[in-house]
Every structure is written in C-alpha cells, then in structure tokens.
Fold this sequence. Notes:
The complex is a heterodimer of chains A (about 675) and B (about 180).
Chain A: H1 2-13, H2 29-36, E1 40-41, E2 49-50, E3 57-62, H3 63-69, H4 74-78, E4 84-88, E5 94-98, E6 109-113, E7 116-117, E8 138-145, H5 149-152, E9 159-165, E10 175-181, E11 185-196, E12 200-210, E13 230-243, E14 246-262, E15 268-286, E16 289-306, E17 309-328, E18 332-346, E19 348-349, E20 353-371, E21 374-391, E22 409-422, E23 427-438, H6 443-447, E24 448-453, E25 460-464, E26 472-485, E27 490-502, E28 510-512, E29 520-523, E30 529-543, E31 547-561, H7 564-568, H8 580-583, E32 587-596, E33 600-609, E34 612-614, E35 623-625, E36 628-638, E37 643-650, E38 656-657, E39 665-666, E40 668-676
Parallel strand pairs in A: 6-9, 19-24, 25-29
Antiparallel strand pairs in A: 1-2, 3-8, 4-5, 6-7, 8-9, 10-11, 10-40, 11-12, 12-13, 13-14, 14-15, 15-16, 16-17, 17-18, 18-20, 20-21, 21-22, 22-23, 23-26, 24-25, 26-27, 27-30, 28-29, 30-31, 31-32, 32-33, 33-36, 34-35, 36-37, 37-40, 38-39
Chain B: H1 3-39, E1 48-56, H2 61-74, E2 78-80, E3 83-91, E4 103-106, H3 112-121, E5 125-128, H4 131-135, E6 141-144, E7 150-153, H5 155-160, H6 167-170, E8 174-175
Parallel strand pairs in B: 1-3, 1-4, 4-5, 5-6, 7-8
Antiparallel strand pairs in B: 2-3, 6-7
Amino acid sequence: MKKQILFAGAFAGAALACALPASAQSIDYGSLTQLFGEPVTTSATGSPQRSTEAPVDMTIVSAEDIKRSGATDIPTILSRVAGVDVINWTAGASDVAVRGYDQAYSPRLLVLINGRQVYLDHYGYTAWSTLPVQLDEIRQIEVVRGPNSALFGFNAVGGVVNIITYNPKYDQVTTGTVRAGSQGYVSGDAVATFKLGERVHTRLSAGIERQDEWNNAVIPSNVISTHDPKRWSANLDSIVELAPKTELRLEGSYSDAQQSDVAPTYTVYALHYKLWSAKGTLTSDTKYGLLQGQAYINHAKTTFDYTGVHYDFDNPIVVASVQDLFKVGAAHTFRLGVEFRHNKMNTTPAPGGEVSYTVWAPSAMWNWNVSRRFALTAAARLDHLQLKRTGTFPDPNFPNADNANWDRQQNVPSYNAGAVFKLTDLDTFRAAYARGVQAPTLLEYGGVQSISDFGPPFGEFAITGTPFLRPAIVSNYELSYDRALPQLGAKFGIKGFYQRTKDVKTSNGFFVLNTPPALSELTYANVGVSEMKGFELSASGKVKGGFRWSADYTYTKVETQFPAELLAQTYTPESLSIAFDKTTPKWRGNASLGWSDEHWAVDGYLHYTGKFGMYGGFGLPLTPVDAYATLAARVGYTFDNGVELAVSGQNLGKSHQAQGNALYAPRRVLVSLSKSW
Amino acid sequence: MNQEFRRRLAPAVLALTLAAPALGHADSAKDLQVAGRALTFLENGPSGAAVLGVVFDPSKPASVAEKNAVMAALGGGYSAGGLTLTGKPVEASAVAGVSGVAALYVTHGVNYAAVGAAAKAKRLVTVASDQACATSGACVMGVSTDPKVDIVVNRSAAAAVGASFKAAFRMMIREV
C-alpha cells in the first residue's frame, strides 16, 4: 500500500501539480464525430478519443438514440444500455447501477454533466429528476462500465455516466417540445442557442414536468408518504472567446423537484430537492498543450419529514481543478492535473454540527500508441482527504462526542490501466484493470445524527455516522473482443469481467454497544468482501432500407464473503443491506428494432431483468422481485417544416408491473410535439 | 467451366466491371470528405471559400480517374465546417508553378517525392489518399476511409510547410 501511494505521489508530483474531470469542453465533438464517422469521447482518459479506441468499456448513447427512445427521463434511456441495472421505485425515483449492486440511493455510480458531478454528495446518489438538463440538449450520454476513479475520483467505482450537452459555440440547437399522456403526465421544455456579439455563444434551456404518483404499492406498509412528482429546471451555458485559442465557458443551473423517494430504509417517503450550480472553465490551446482551469460549486438542499422527524440536508461542494493535456513526440499523450474539493453538510435531524472534508488529488494519465495497432494507457490519482467536524453534539453521551475524532486523514490511490490491440482493422481486443475508490459519504461520516428510543431492553440509541469508516476499494479486471462486420453493416462483442470490492460499506444497521453512560449507536461499518464476475454479449447493426437493430445480454454472479464473527453476533448480509448476491439479478438484456426514412421513425425496445430480491424495509426479510420484461415503442413523423409529432409508450406489455419493491410501474402512453429551428 | 456457366457468368462480370469505377468514385468522395474536414483542424488554416488543387499524373489512368472523381465530388463547392472547397486540377509537373490554391490533394500514382518537394517549396499543405505519401515524408497528411477513417500526419512535412494542427485533433490521429 505504501509503495502504491509513493508511486502515485511521485507520478503526480512530476505533474507540475495539476487535475480531474478532464472533459475539455472546447473540443468540437460534432466536427470530430463527423470526421471520424463515430462518436468521440473524453470520458475514458480525459483525452479526446474515438469510442472504438478508448481503453475502457464504454457505450455512447447518441442524440438520435435519445430522441428515438421515446423516453422522458435518463434512467429509462440507461436501462437499454448493456449491463446497466435500473430499479424504478416510484414515478420520479429510480436508481441506476452498472453490473449489479443496485440499491436505494445507489452510491457506486458517478454521474456528470459536462464533467460537473451531479450526484448528491451528502448521500452519494443521483436524484435523476434534479438534473438540470433537457433531453433535447444532450449531444451524447457516455456510459463507462467499471471503475474510472483515476480520472474522475470518488464514486466512479461501478461506472460513470457523463452527459455531454451541445456546445453553444459549435452547435446551433434551438428546439421546443411539449408532451402529454397517461397518469396525468404533462411536460414542456425549450432550448435556445444564440450569439451575443461575435464572441459570446449562449445556450439557454428550461423545462417543467409533472405527473401522478404511481398508486399501487408492493408493500403498502412501507409507504410513509408520497408526492406527485413535479420538477422544473433551467440551465445557462455560455462560451466567451477571449482570444483565438482561449475561451471561457460559464454554466449555471437551478432545479427544483418534489417526488417520492425510496431511502436506504427501503420505505417510500416524499421529499423536496432544491439545487443550484455555477461553473467556470477556462481553456486554452497553447504550445504547452490544452490547458484547463475549472471551478464550480454545487449546492443541494433536501428537506423531508420522516416518521414525524424533520430532516434538512444542506450540502454545498466547491471543486476546483487545473490540468494540462499534451502530446510528446508522435506517440505519447499525457494529462497532468490536480483537483481540490471542499464538501460540507450540516448535521441532521439533530442540528448543531457540521461535517466536512477537503481533498487534494493530483492525477496523471499516459497514453502510448506503441504502434498503429497497439496502444497502452495508464492513469493514477491520489486522493488526500482531510476530515473535519465542528459544532455541537445532541447529547454529551453521544458516541465519539469530540470533534477531534474527525481530525483524520486518508490517502487513497486509484489506478486505471488498459491495452487496446487491433489485430486487424476489424478485430479489437481490450484488456483493462482498474482500482476504484468508493469514499464514505458525508452522511456516513457523521452528517446524520439523532437519538431514538427503541424501548426496552434497548433504550435510547444514537443514530449516527462515524469518522472511522474506510473507503471501499473496488478492483476490476476485464477482457473484451469486438468484431466489425462491414459486409453486414454490423458488429458484435464479447466481454468477460471480474470485480472485487473490499471493505464493503453497510447501508445502515450496524449496532455498536458502548459502555454506559455512552449511548450505543446504530451506524455504518466496513464489512467483508464482495466479488462479481460475469460476461456480456452484444451485437448491433444497420440494414439497407433504413433498419437498425441491437441486442445484448449480460450475466453477473455476485458472491459475498461475510465475516463469521459477525454472523455469530446475529448480523447477516441482509440486516446490513449488503446482500448483493441476492439483490443483483443474474441476467439482464435488451433487444431493439427500428426503421426510419426521411419523415418516419419507428422503434421498439424490449428489456428483460431477471429475478432478484430487495430489502423489505422496517426489518422485513428480502422481498422477491419477479423477473420481468418491458416493451416500449415510439412512432414519430417529421414534417418538412421541422415539426415532429410522436406517440410513444413505456411498459406496454402490462398494465402494472413491479420493477422494484416500492410502487408498481404502470403502462404509460405519451404524445409529443416538437419543433426544431 | 461449361459454356452455360460462362454464359451466366458474363453478365455478372460485366456488371462488376461497370460498377468498379462507381465504387472508386464513392471512395474518392469519402476520402475527400475526410481530407476537407481534416483541413478545418489546421491552426490558421483555410476558411470560407478556398480552392483545393487536385494533383494528378495525366499518364496514369488511376490518377486521372481519381482526379475526376474528386473534382466531381467537389462539384460547385464542398462544405466542411466553415470551409467551402472548390477544385482545381493540377498536373503533377505543374505544382511548382501552381497558384491560387489553399492546399493540394495528391492522387494515387503521382511522383510523391517530386510533388511533395514542390509543395514544400511553396509552403502548401498536401493531403494524399495514399498514406504512403505521408509516411514517406513527402505529404503532410494521408487519409483513408476503408474500412474506417484513418489519418496520418507527418510531423516533419508539416513543419516544413509551417502547418500545425489543433491539439485535440493531434491526439486522435497517428503522427509519424
């Protein structure tokens, strides 16, 4: 471990001191995509790459795919990506994970918009309805399977979803869409791109949506409260050309969402999100490479009442980074950077304290094109985390009731290494290794604190986080083979992967019996090891006459190594919410068929998820969720004046279907009308 | 091979023979598209309306055919980003005296070394559909599109004509 840290530190130190989310947004995705005839990404290494040459396992969902999906939300779009698991709890709440380990408030997926993290840092999950982006302004969604912490840092352990919007400098996108449908669904959004003078390019977007909450519960006693989902958001994206090769990108957003969520207690409750963000990115193409300085602030406020107790999460995070992306000689590309982040939240529901941490994280990436057919990539990052707590505790006998317990540091390295070997112009082999870091959330570090009376014989307990929690470390190994079949206009791929998670974090439920008068506590802990292995098959193609098709199938098997001494203390993986072997479906797959011509676009999507179990909530045993298949379709007609009329449907096979163990997902039919200028 | 088989085969062979030039046109058009787009990633490169000199050897039928295909593809103007290219045929022996062109497109079969040297003397960027022109150092850039787009840039040839490409582009192509 020490050697690893020294290696990473030395590697990064040589880095002049430099950063993270590397998505150099001055990159003209549109022109590069047209040039190479395939999607371009920066999510693999921070350097622009063709999707077929990226040294990671990645799928790119294009703007056309999004439009033809008929979906109104990003989780539905992601559910059709190979290996992605989506649990739809309620009309407004879904959790997304890659290759298993999905759970309430799924903390293993890093979600970004143009390189800005949009997952909620206090709990480490993504409230998808709060994303301040309209589907019409998304250029592509990049889905990386497996850890990518060496580039993006925390939470990028199961995978990364990087949402890339159109660039107002290069992409003139102006659209408006209204939709209406069953379950009282109504939405509208608009996107406008315009220039202010010769050097300022701006895109404005806004959207509003409401629908009725699903009205049938799988376990009625688990429904504490519900709220008909409604949301609105607005976003500003502006690029100022300061000089011919230097630009400043300014982004700001606000979103407000009310809905029913499912918390890690596996109960349904209503809550209210208010989020805003501001971001500035200075990019310059210099003789020293692509230099980028970036800073942003995310501020998330979440409020709700839960079993008579009011919770109020207030979580601002400031992130700043600098990086240089440059090429040395003909074959070597480097990215050097350093990131700073400061993250804090109040204690709740018992106020009076504040938990925070500061991170300094140098990082480096090296891409070596050894030959025309062989490329190597290595990336490393070291996260130096300084934890801190200020303020008061709710009781003098509260566990760890001394802020000095939070004066702790952690140094955690993460790595990515990949090799891409193009045996021929049609055959590509990949081998990848990654070491990812899933850091504890602020809530787990002590953001949550309260005292509950559990009655005799337990009496009063503290419900709290702990400063002694360690990051979970995820190691991932993957081999893949892709074959293009140009004569058929098709391609297919096969992948095998193995993943090991050490120091798995419990979601809740770990009792620590302290010596009175100190209160015993219900807290979080690192428990055991989890292993996942599996394979994926995928194929897709286009056929003359305007047809396209795709199919994929992913198998995963998860095994949990649970400490015997905890079993002896009557703990179980289920009681600590880490029974991932039971909560991960073994199979999931997709098939799609579409046809389009100048005016018409017709698409159908079939998705299958194998059976799995989910925590019952309030101490109930695992609830079985039967295997299910969903059918979705869309028919659209575009008139010559740019107006498009479409009819789409989700869950068409059944009137109601359990896709989790909260509320039943109903069949839904929508009509949409959009216009592009 | 019996007579009936040859009788049935003949139309197929004729069809393939007739189709061959068409396929050549299609590939040349794709090569041209890539070449035109690649030129937009030049620092201080051409923008707006610009003329692309199409270099050919009149004694080589393949070179002439490619020149014709490229000229046809350029037509009244091929647009890539902010650049609109029109074509001007240039015989390989006349490159040293060429004027009014923003860059040269070098067809298969010309004497790369001679054309490259003449273009360097005039500090003109050269793009070839034969990557050997670039790997040999005669041309600045070579492009191919079958089975997928591949672009190679010769750094010394680029330096010789004072050409430099945008950083993002450089990271996505092969440099020699």
